[in-house]
Design brief:
This protein is α/β, with parallel strands linked by helices. It has helices at about 5-15, 30-35, 95-115, 130-150, 165-170, 205-210, 220-235, 260, 265-275, 330-345, 360-365, 365-380, 395-400, 425-430, 435-440, 440-460, 460-465, 480-490; strands spanning about 45, 70-75, 80-85, 115-120, 155-160, 160-165, 175-180, 185, 215-220, 280, 290-295, 300-305, 310, 320, 325, 350-355, 355, 385-395, 410-415, 420, 470.
């Protein structure tokens, strides 16, 4: 491979000496951020000689090398990617006409080649001196990103300011990383919100945005660079490429003896299932009762969705507890993730433990729509889908969680799982209300009727007899069953009705 650092250096020297006065970007923090993400010596800059062409407000008197954004391409673990990095030392990294055109041109390259785009944000916003030209350029970037959505992966990393319309740009991408000490992400700055100021509540902070579900990952610059590299390595380059495959020496038949104990926190269980115990959790700080992220099994990337009832801290103690219910935020989180996986042909695994819907006045305002979107996402997804029922699976909430009726290709259940309309105790009280009321020993009667109902309607054996469960498996054998299922489903194809898109 060519020494691209040497090429870039020669280009800089050539452009600086050029009679036309071209000035290439200096070796700045913007460039070092690119180099931290890409393989060594792989970055090649494109459009180095571009600079602002506006003369309004005497802006031409200010140096604008590369118009404040470095654009180019390189590789991550040998995989082609396109990257742009805003340079806050040039007009505060503000977006002007030519700045926007460079990013738009990068998207044209990426779409032609079918490769991901990584945007590194550190920007004061739109360049006021260029007004409508800058605004037009901004809209063009929005359009390019919208067209690229579902075709190539788009990743944004926020290192500095990402305000106003830039916040929309970051949310148009598939995944957003945010530096956790200096970066600011906002549509309206904290001090512009009625009754608020930054010292009271910093709504532009990484912590706030991560807990709001806007940001997927947070950390320092080194953590971000490593995270972007890991994520790109797990994702396909585009929507037509086969699943991302990595070499692994992990035993497919490896037992997971701690699986049953870990299932309350599926992040632990999924790590146990995964090759080399690597689980990349997405939106970990948002809707913690729903876990989403990526694992690899036999080297194949799989998207995972799971219900959580406990969150453990680093000492292994329970830090937070959750009811096994479907929440508004949890449903939206899972729906968005499943849609991404389906767009890029990434198989989906679910670990299901849900007994109903969140029952609060606030939840009632949105749970129907949120659950409908989750239901549609699973039903609409035509990628390989496997469901493992690990605990309770009751009512419509269970149906929405990748059930057989929604199109799950294979459904497994642990022996301790319970599948049915509702909890057997509650069902018994409803079905045998008169008999229970007349009983001399109410508790004994309820227990007897509940046990009868559970055996006939809520046991895994009952569900298996009806074909709703394909096999009852021991928890410690979950990895090998999951691996075998996705291996069998690798070449899955489905024919769906021809339509432009759904409306849910």
């Amino acid at each position: 491979m060519a020494d691209c650092n040497k090429i870039n250096k020669e280009l800089r020297n050539s452009n600086v000496k050029n009679k036309g006065g071209l000035v290439m970007s200096n070796t700045t923090q913007a460039l070092s951020r690119i180099e931290a993400i890409l393989d060594d010596s792989s970055f090649v800059e494109i459009g180095a000689g571009v600079t602002a062409r506006s003369t309004d407000f005497n802006i031409q008197e200010k140096k604008a090398p590369s118009d404040g954004v470095i654009t180019g391409y390189g590789v991550i673990n040998g995989n082609l990617v396109y990257v742009y990095s805003q340079d806050a030392t040039v007009l505060n990294g503000s977006i002007g006409e030519m700045h926007a055109k460079k990013i738009s041109a990068l998207y044209d390259y990426a779409m032609k080649m079918g490769a991901p785009v990584i945007g590194l944000i550190d920007c004061a916003g739109l360049r006021l001196q260029e007004a409508t030209d800058a605004l037009e350029g901004f809209g063009t970037i929005y359009k390019k990103m919208s067209i690229a959505s579902g075709v190539i992966p788009q990743i944004t990393a926020v290192y500095g300011n990402c305000g106003g319309g830039l916040a929309i740009l970051s949310s148009l991408s598939d995944f957003t990383f945010m530096e956790d000490s200096k970066a600011k992400l906002f549509v309206n700055s904290p001090n512009a919100l009625d009754g608020n100021n930054e010292s009271k509540l910093d709504s532009a902070s990484a912590k706030f945005q991560a807990e709001a579900g806007v940001v997927d990952f947070t950390g320092d610059e080194e953590t971000i660079a490593n995270g972007v590299r890991q994520l790109v390595s797990m994702l396909p380059a585009n929507n037509e490429e086969d699943a991302a495959v990595s070499a692994t020496t992990d035993d497919l038949n490896r037992a997971c003896p701690d699986m049953a104990a870990e299932i309350a926190d599926p992040a632990l269980a999924l790590s146990d299932i995964a090759d080399d115990n690597v689980f990349v959790e997405v939106k970990a700080s948002y809707a913690k009762e729903m876990v989403t992220g990526f694992i690899q099994v036999d080297g194949i990337t799989i998207g995972a969705v799971a219900n959580r009832t406990a969150l453990y801290d680093e000492e292994g103690e329970v830090a937070e507890k959750f009811e096994p219910v479907l929440t508004v935020k949890g449903a939206y989180k899972a729906e968005n993730f499943v849609n991404f996986c389906n767009a890029f042909e990434i198989p989906v695994l679910t670990l299901t433990n849900v007994k109903g819907f969140e029952a609060t006045v606030a939840a009632e305002k949105g749970i129907a729509i949120a659950s409908a979107k989750l239901t549609y996402a699973f039903a609409n997804a035509d990628v390989p889908k496997v469901n493992v029922i690990t605990g309770e699976a009751y009512g419509s909430a269970y149906v929405s969680m990748n059930s057989k009726s929604l199109g799950a290709d294979l459904v497994y259940a642990w022996p301790t799982a319970s599948i049915g309309m509702m909890d057997s105790q509650l069902a018994a009280k409803i079905m045998y209300a008169d008999e229970i009321a007349a009983a001399s020993d109410v508790a004994a009667t309820v227990s007897e009727k509940a046990a009868e109902y559970a055996k006939l309607q809520s046991s895994v054996e009952s569900a298996a007899a009806r074909g709703y469960v394909d096999a009852v498996i021991d928890p410690e054998n979950t990895r090998q069953y999951v691996a075998a299922a996705f291996e069998m489903l690798f070449s899955k194809r489905e024919v769906r009705p021809d339509k432009k898109h759904g409306t849910v």
